[in-house]
Amino acid sequence: MDLYKAIQDLYAEKEKLERVIASLEELQRNAGGSVVPVKPGKRRGRKFMNPKERREVSERMKRYWERRRSGPDGKAGDKPGSRPDKPGAKSPEKHGAKPPAAGA
Length: 104
Hints:
- The chain has a domain of 26 residues.
- The chain has two helices and no strands.
- The relative contact order is 0.04.
- The model has no long low-confidence stretch (mean pLDDT 78).
């Protein structure tokens, strides 16, 4: 199908739909009703928080991170299983390698 012909067909269909809509609106007006706007369906997407909810979440997260930073004895990062100094660094003892000599 030719692109030009497809566009022409779509314009013709659009005009036909506009005429049908106009005649239906006219029938509705003659029947004593008014044009009723279409109600949107259920809102989708993210739920927005009001300021009170936002403040509650903020306080909860502050407490969470404070406890997380302090660790069990008040020292940060001394927990077993904490990350090494460099991300991706492997412990030499775990992999059979010897630590480098002091003077090397």
